[in-house]
Structures are given as C-alpha cells and as structure tokens.
Amino acid sequence: IEDVLLNRREDATERMLDFAATLDPKSGPCELRRLGQEPAAPKFEADPRQNYSKENKIAPPDPKTLPPVPTYKKWVDPLPKSDAFAVIDKIMSERVMIIDGAMGTSVQAYKLKEEDFRAERYKDHENDLKGNNDILVLTRPDVIKEIHSAYLAAGADIIETNTFNATMISQADYALDRKQDVWDINVAAAKLAKECCVEFTKKDPSKPRFAAGAIGPTNRTLSVSPSVENPAFRACTFDEIVEAYYEQTEALIEGGVDVLLVETIFDTLNAKAALFAVNKYFANWGKKIPVFVSGTIVDNSGRTLSGQTNEAFWNSVSHAKPIAIGLNCALGAQDMVPYIDNLSKCADCWVFAYPNAGLPNAMGGYDQKGPEMAKDCETFFEKNLLNAIGGCCGTTAEHIASLAELGARYKPRQRHDVPEQMRLSGLLPFNYDPNEKDMRKSFINLGERCNVAGSSIFKKAIVDGNFEKALAIALKQVENGAHVIDINMDDGLIDGKSAMTKFVNLLVSEPDASKVPFMIDSSKFDVVEAGLKCSQGKCIMNSISLKAGQDQFLKDAALVKAHGAAVVVMAFDEEGQAATEAEKVRICCRAFKLLVEEVGFNPQDIIFDPNILTIGTGMEEHNNYAVDFINATREIKRLCPGCKISGGVSNLAFSFRGNEPVRRGFHSAFLYHACKAGMDMGIVNAAQVEEDVYENIDKELLEYIEDVLLNRREDATERMLDFAATLDPKSGPCELRRLGQEPAAPKFEADPRQNYSKENKIAPPDPKTLPPVPTYKKW
Fold first, then answer.
1. Mean pLDDT (whole number) for 573-578
2. How far apart are CA 261 and CA 102, in angstroms?
3. CA dihedral of residues 145, 150, 154, 157 (deg, nearest 10)
4. Alpha-carbon distances of 81 from 76, 323, 382, rounded to whole Å
5. I need a surface site. Which of 87, 213, 450, 458 has the fewest CB within 10 A?
6. What distance in Å separates the CA atoms of residue 263 and residue 176, rounded to the nearest whole number?
7. What is the value of pTM for the model shown?
8. What average pLDDT does the chain have?
9. Euclidean distance between CA atoms 70 and 499, whole angstroms
10. What pLDDT sits at residue 45?
11. CA atoms within 13 A on the CB side of 646
12. SS3 assignment, position 450
C-alpha cells in the first residue's frame, strides 16, 4: 500500500493489483485472509463422559497360556510315480545327463521332397506338406529312427519325440487339424523313440535311455495379441490350448514315452496351459511321469517373448513341480550363462540347458561345430550350474558327442532348497520376504483402484466400456506404490466374466502395469478362473471359503492349485462369517489343515482374510471388531506356520466415508497395529497408505481414532462423531484442518521488476532551503 501511497517505486501499482488479487475481499486489513481462507473453527473440546480404559486389548498374551501349534501331516501325492522318477533323480545326482540335438537340422540334411512328406497316406492331401516334419513319423519313419539312433550312439541319455508341432492347433497350418491324424502322429512318434531307447538300453543296461514326449509351444500365444489395433484380442483361448495339449499328452503316453518335455516356451501362459493339461491327464490316468519344462529367452534382455524374466517364469510354473527346469533355443551357450546361473539359484529342482550351435549366420544357418560349441558350454560346468545338457537349433549328432565328452569330465550341480517364501510374478518376480521386526515396512499394498467396489471412477469406465481409462487407473496405481493390482468386476451392471477377461488381457499387454502380479478377485468362481486363464504370471486368487461346505472348498482349492495361484481364504464357514477372535482362529485353522494335508497347498501361498469388519457404527457388538482382527491375526500366524494375513482395509471405517481425515487416519492407525501383530498385506489405496504415516497423524485426531479402534472407552464412537463434525472432510490426517479452514494461499512473491527508491519522499526538508514565510496584510 505504502509503495503506491508514497510513490516509492515505478511498478508499485502493478504489484499492488497482483497482491490484491490473492486476498479475500471480505476480510479486513487487521484480520487479513487469503482467498478461500476462512476463520478457524473454535477448538473442539470433548467432555470425558465415560470412564477411559487403559487396558491394552491387543497386547500379545503370555506364551505359556497359549495352546501348542498343531503338527500337520505332510501331504502325499495320491498319484503313484513311474519308475523313471527315481532313475532320473539318481543319474542327475551322480553325473550330467545328455539330451539329444535338433530334429529339424537333422531332417534338413536328408533333403526330403514333397513326396516324402505325403507317402501313400497323404498322396491326395489338398495342402503342401513339405516342412511338416512331424508327419515323417508316419510317412518316413526310417529317417526319424536313423536320427534318433545317431543321437543315442553319440551319447544321448534322452531323445525327444518328433512331435514339436503335433497339436491340433499347429497342424491347422497344413490342414491336418484332425483328431485322428494328430493322435496317430503322437503315438507313432512316441513308439518310434521308445523303440530306439529300448534297443540302446539293451546294449548297455548301465546307461538307461529315455524317450521324452516333446510338447512344443504351438504357433499361437495367449499373452500377445495378433492385432496391433486391439491389444485385448487373442487368437485362441486358454481352454482351446489346454484341449490341444491334453490330446497330445494322452497320445504320447499311449505311445510309451518315459517323460514329457514342455519346451521352447516363449509365452509362459502357453506353458501354464500345457502343465494344466498334463496334470489333468495324470489325474484321470491315475499315474504320473516326470515332466521337464524349458523356457526360451529371445534376446540378451533375458526375457521371454511375452516379457517375463526367467525367475518370473520359474515362479509361474514351479507349482507343477517339474523334475527339471531349463532354457533352450534363441541364444548360444555363452549368452545363456547368466540366465542359467539365475535359474540354478532360484530353482529347487534339477536344471538343464540345450542352447543353439552359436548364433545364426546371415543366411539363418549355424556355423559352430561340435568342439567349438562344447568349449562355449564349458562355462556351465565350471560354474556348476547344470544337471543335463543338449543341443537345439543347428546341432547334430557331432555336437551331442562333443557335449557328452564334456559332461563326463564334470560333476553335476547338486539340488538345493530355497528359502520358504511366497513367490508371485508378473513380468518380474515378486518374492515376499517379510520384515519380522517391522511388518509395516514389508507390507504388500494390494491396489484397490481396479476394484469396482473400491473406485467409482474405475466402475464407470468399465460400465462405459472405456477400458483404456481403466488401464490408466491401473498404471497410476503401480506408479503410486501398489505391489499387486487387485481386479474385481463384481457389479450388477457388469458382465463379470467378459469384463475380467478383456481387462486382464489388456493389462498383460501393458508392461508397466503387468510387471507386478495380479490379484484376481471375485465372489464368483467362474469369474476368478476367467482371470487366471489370462495371466502368465503367478497370481493371487481371491477368494474361496468353507461357506458352501468342505467338499466344494476342497474342489475349488484343487483348481486354484492347478492354475498355480496363491489363494485368499475368507473366514467363512457353513455357520456364517467369523466376527470374534475365536471364530476367526477356528475357521482359519480348519481351512489351513484341509489345504495343507488334503490339497497339498504350499503354506506360503495360503492367505487368510479374517474379515476386517466396520467399527464406529454405534452398535455395541461392533466395538471390538478391530481388536478381534488384530488378535486373531497374531494367533492365526502362530497356529498356521507360513500363512499370510490380508484384508480389505477400506471396510474398517465405512461409517466415516466422506470424511477423508478420519477414514484415512483409521486405515493408517489400523495398519500400524495390525502389522505389529503380523498382517502381511491389504487391499488399500496405495498412494494414501504411503502418504499417511502413522507417526505424522494429527495427535488429537489419533487419540479419538484409537479410542474407537482399540475399544478404549464406551463413548468412543460418539466422541469421534462429534470431533469429526468439526473437521474439513477434504483434509488429510497428517495435515488436518477444521471446518472452513483452507490451506493458506501460496506466499505472494513479486519480482523486483523496477528499481526501488529508498528516498523518503515525505521527510521534512532542511529549513535553510526553504523560502521565507510571506507577510500577510491584516484584513
């Protein structure tokens, strides 16, 4: 004001106008307020109307007073194993096993013509068949037998059937997608390979040979859209892939293979479908044979074509308990070493590799000879990484002979245990290592914003069919700190199964979202299964319960296990929802025993949700709900070793919805105490729980919240409601404001645009410089 009033600077008026624009025009000069800043509400004073309890209702009890932890029976797979399990285990522990080389490379050396592929059986077939190597087991079995025999003579312990593309899906390229043709190819290929193995085993019984049923990746991918314009589109479904693999598995076993090799996996979801089909067949057959699983990394990024790292790939398929895991194709031996090294560390089964003969030349051929390839492969053995080795593209019997000579000089890798952890995956592995000293620091944020019950914006996007907007919400959650994305489509306006399928397919196509695991969440089992069938990673399935009875519970749990997911178990049984601590503990312990002893679920993958129920409702029977959850958490974790605890945190303060500081303060305070009791994860607003640090909550607000949360006084809810009514519902628990009190406007800073004059323009002048006072005539 005085800059203008006293003309102290040239820009005084402009600065005054700028500053005036930030002020509340109805305030006064002595009680100045910025725009939007209202007088503070009077301080709230709550009368101590009831007695205050100083009892700590969530203190850990004396260990001496607790019942002993039950002893759980170890699950035994009811399916008998073939003799090959014990034989292969013994060999791999004693020496390096040798796998054969490339079938395609060997076939090419014969320079076969169209007539060789047709023979009498397909002489009138409408499509060209040259290049369909699989049918040679029917049209030129002599060629395939020669190739098998050459590899066995070179020292191979395991030869693969010529069935890499022998599925209904892959044979469609040659118009041979007919059940009988596919059956005949697989049976004939298995018999041919087995016949050669029997022949060579008879020559030297000390070196048994094994026929491995080769199950290729098909020419379809379940995780990548063939349409650039529609990333949620898939050329085939999980069920179609499973059906094709089931038929192939059945035929290969009918033909007599000793093991199955699910190989050259560029899309882990295809592999999961293959393993689902294989295990489904084993269950129907009543027996099982060893399964080898081999992934393919496409370049030096160390990832599959569908984007997974090799440890994420292992986390996704480890549920199938393969006898061995490995990598093949794509790279030469030297480039493959770091990825085999990592796989060797994280896998608790045998490990193998069958790399290409170096990298392809400009013409797509391979120049590396056997001794040169063996030299490159020596690093595997110097680092003690492998139990078996073979060759892929470009390799022949010469290469296998060199590898056999190399393997004989080294001891095999020893199988080892890995730390017991819950291991999930998206494109990246997520291995949960709880911080037992401070569980809040290792707490898993299950992002709630892709749950139609947790976000009205997300729900509207799905209802409107705006899946791009829904995807943006998922991306934002990951940016804000969500470790897992919870996806739920349960709403009367939404076709849950269709929406779940489309959204998960879309999420999978976005690397920044799909790098984290998904929680597939629904009260409808078919909707959950639809989501699991779209995700290549290891998901969390939410949820199953004993509500419909024990038989249904066991059936659902077995199917979740077959999909390789961790599982959330709600604390419900035939009598209803568990509300008290005793009910929560009883139901969860019953479910744990069933899952561990009868289904064979890994305890690390069992997540209990003991029901976070709403408090502060005014109903006395609800007052202890939070205390019951916290105490039940501690006891369930003790009685069910390895299990995890989760919950929907937003349920807790539902009665305070709309009042952000109170609701968010409840969430933060609850997590603080629940994590101390052992809570591992929760469905939360990831950004808010990271921002609302317990220690920073307004202390007055925290006292009212914890009176309700910890059930410290009878009138806690009434006092909380009274106090809440004085708060700005849009403020935060750590930056609390009273009603009418807005954040101060940013401090006004005016740039010194003109020179400022320090001259005092109203200072009295020197009297000597003044003119004399005039003499005035008297009137």
1. 96
2. 14
3. -10
4. 12, 12, 33
5. 87
6. 22
7. 0.88
8. 94
9. 42
10. 64
11. 28
12. strand
